[in-house]
Amino acid sequence: MKPILFIFLLTISIVHLSSQSFDQKPVIEAALRFSTSLSEAQKIVALRTMNDTNRVHWSNLPLEQVSRDGLRLDLMTDDQRQNIHQLLRTVLSDQGYLKILFIMQYDQETNNRLTASKSPIAHRYGQEKYWTWIFGNPSLTEKWGFKFEGHHISLNLTFSPKGVSCTPHFTGINPGLVTKGITSGKYIMYRESEVGKKLYQSLTEAQRMKAHTDTLPFTIDVRTQTGKEALLTDSKGLSYIQMNKNQQLMILDIINAWADNFNPAIVSNKKLNMLKTISSAHFTWLGSNSIDELHYYSIIAPGWVIEFADRDQGLQHFHTIWRMMPEDFGSKL
């Protein structure tokens, strides 16, 4: 299929999907089952107002490196944990839900590895160290939200009669690609990593000179911590309109790698809004010219950003974020 025809058909498909509104009843039912199952002490911790500061702050850091005061998984009953997973499945796609499970599993493996080596920080990690908050009153007629967060995960959902917000959305993994042991070859967040590298490899020398904006700081991380950083408007990098059609298709694939973590009915209109401004998007690359060394890339356009960073602990330590800045934390709902 020719690239132009592919993009046309993709746009038509997204326009069709955007007419299908997300059915909020299942997520409201799941949130209410969880809320009503809580003890009075648990309710004080987990149930907050929409004005609670936890709602509009996020972090991917592990225990002790950031303070979280929601309800942690190991302080719930089995039934309550089942309710949380049902809540996650209502808003995430199969891909997104499995990705979250893998990230949590990897955190347990980090705990196991550090415990075996008698590390003093082993207790910071583990699949139980993830927190939940419900903000407001889950209802079809009111604005409300929930957060699920811990090391390498920050899910921020807001709902109202006007629609659904699903950003900021942070995912991370360490290691993304397992290279030793019986699970050698297992690769989580494959598309996020490999399509970005493939895009950079495809660039001509002239294109690379535009895209390659800086060296890579040792402490590189996702740079849009607040969504108000100057880099979001500086227009540095290689413009989308300066790419060939195959490179533009890779940009679309990168967008889908993040957006497709959510229920299609939630993100179809997000994708459409991203396509509306994609001609103004810029691709940036930090690091060396080698994709086999630590690197960072971003796609920044008016109203949204995607970032991917290899962290300081090695080539397979990924930090990533997707933000729709005007919609973050439901600010436009």
How would you describe this protein?
The chain is α+β, with helices and mostly antiparallel strands and 333 residues long. The chain contains nine helices and 13 strands. It has helices at residues 3-18, 25-37, 40-46, 78-91, 94-116, 190-202, 205-211, 245-259, 264-276; strands at residues 47-48, 71-72, 130-135, 144-150, 153-160, 163-165, 169-173, 212-214, 238-239, 282-287, 295-301, 304-310, 318-324. Strands 1, 2, 3, 4, 5, 6, 7, 8, 9, 10, 11, 12 and 13 form a 13-stranded mixed sheet that branches. Helix 1 (3-18) packs across helix 9 (264-276). The two termini are 38 Å apart. Mean pLDDT is 92; it is low at 12-19.
Give the SSE map.
Blueprint: H1 3-18, H2 25-37, H3 40-46, E1 47-48, E2 71-72, H4 78-91, H5 94-116, E3 130-135, E4 144-150, E5 153-160, E6 163-165, E7 169-173, H6 190-202, H7 205-211, E8 212-214, E9 238-239, H8 245-259, H9 264-276, E10 282-287, E11 295-301, E12 304-310, E13 318-324
Parallel strand pairs: 1-3, 8-10
Antiparallel strand pairs: 2-3, 3-4, 4-5, 5-6, 5-7, 7-13, 9-10, 10-11, 11-12, 12-13
Helix pairs in contact: 1-9, 2-4, 6-8
